[in-house]
């Protein structure tokens, strides 16, 4: 039972990343009808927002130490963060320690602007073009973005640290009465609850606000909403920006779990599109459900017992599930009739 529960936890935090990326993909497809193959690159850019903020907060200058000397008695040089001169030593230590969660604020602003520029500058010209054209142009954009990141940040993964308060592991077993062997990293638990919160806020925004109501109506019948005098295009631009923000904050918070590199967006993109298809094209609930479901299945497939029985199953389990689901439910788990069926 302990091993099973640990695999469920592993699947939930991984499924959280899949669900957040798939949620943004479904928002864009459901509202604009665009298949956005650059969405994984937005996840990657969000991760590098965290990297950029961490580097910015750690910029420092050298000065002669007043207390430390070498073995000859000569004063040593020490690195002093510029941040300490502005906010003091205590706040400097705190901000640098919590650079990853603080980077959410940077990611919201940066990714929102990137989303608006992408939609206004490129995506709007492909609304009525075939899906193949949309895939080609957004895939090309993804390659351009990842090459820009590789140029400025290098090709190697850049480790990011979780805040020191969440650096250890939580004794989840003692919380639930399962025994002392169920120990799980704090930050992975934080990421799961963070992803659940973002998903709930996104659904609440779409369900309980006037803006969200109009967007949902536009997803069902864009032409009719436009005839009512509502500037649905401007709202769709905001939705594209929202989808970019969701992907960006997901990437920023994931950096302590997976060290960001320029290629991580492509790695998550393929799996996230499978998640969207399994959940059902255009179904927000289906994207979230499939994200967590496939994350858990992938986690169980990575167990040593399963690997011994079927070597390499963890690499293909997601695609096997997709084949089975689509053979039995051609529209996916919660797909809507008429989506991509013309």
Automatic annotation (TrEMBL):
One Pfam match: BPD_transp_2
Q: Transmembrane ranges?
A: 20-53, 100-123, 135-153, 189-215, 236-257, 269-297, 309-329
The protein's name in its UniProt record: Branched-chain amino acid ABC transporter permease
Q: Name one cellular component (GO) term.
A: plasma membrane
How does the protein's chain sit in the membrane according to the entry?
Answer: Multi-pass membrane protein
Q: Which GO terms describe its biological process?
A: amino acid transport
Q: Which domain of life is it from?
A: Bacteria
Q: Which InterPro entries match?
A: ABC_transp_permease, BCAA_transport_permease
The cellular location(s) given in this protein's UniProt record come to: Cell membrane
Q: Which UniProt keywords apply?
A: Amino-acid transport, Cell membrane, Membrane, Transmembrane, Transmembrane helix, Transport
In the record, what terms sit under GO molecular function?
A: transmembrane transporter activity
